[in-house]
Model the fold of this input.
Amino acid sequence: AIADRSIAINQQINAIVPNEQTDSVFLCELIRAMKPVIQRQASGVMTGIVNKSKLAQLEAIYPPLPIQRKFAERVNEIRKMETQQAASNHRLGYLFQSMLHRAFSGDL
Done:
């Protein structure tokens, strides 16, 4: 998740804070893509804690900021479309339920 304000976290939770040369949306998606790699570094059966030093040793791509921003724009466009599609599916569900009700009550 991307925090839009200063936050406090528990000492066992790692935070990755982007610098001025890192787009936060790009960084978030990079971490999502690297989830299996990060999880392999976890210790503990139930909690899966990744210590800070192991996290710092992971290698990842780091394109120039303009490329990160272009990627982030595309991600934001896709997220917007996903939201619109979810709302559309929700409305279709209501319409379908309405049609079923009308069909079984003889109103069609």
Observations:
- The chain has a mean pLDDT of 91.
- The radius of gyration is 21 Å.
